[in-house]
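step: validate -> pass
step: tokenize input -> pass
step: predict -> running
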Amino acid sequence: MTLPDSAKPRNKRLSFYKFVVENLSEDVPVIVEGCSDLFNGWLTPRGTEGLSSWIELHIESFSGGLNSKMKVRFDVNVRDSRDEDSFQMKRMDDLLERIMSLLNTSGGDVIPVYDFSDPANPERIGEEQGLGFIPRHTPEEDGFAAGDVPISRYRLHYELWLWQEGVAP
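step: predict -> pass
step: emit ->
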């Protein structure tokens, strides 16, 4: 088995962004760092002014080919308020749980891969071959990070392995 021609690195990165934005942005704003020029209409770049909480999504590294691997980082940000600290930590816990729940793809589910040749209408590719990403949490890299006062920031790390049915990563 081989990957479809349209399974290019750009499509793989954008497919992950699409998955996260579509599944989390109703709960909290998702900010994709450094790639707003790639989205061409389906994701509007936004700032953090006035937000009480948001998630920043970063791709830290990418290796291509059939056994592609992406290292991704979620920065979960909660702006301090005049309320008790427990409110901020509860919100932080809720957002972390939402991300981890979303990326727990048990039962053979994968994060789908799309062709973004027409960015406004991405088309799913490789579905018949079971093509998609399988996430693996790497908790040894997780933890609170220094942030701008008054913002609490927690970094959550994952590796995403491209998987195709019948071809082990």
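step: describe -> The longest strand covers residues 151-163.
step: cleanup -> pass
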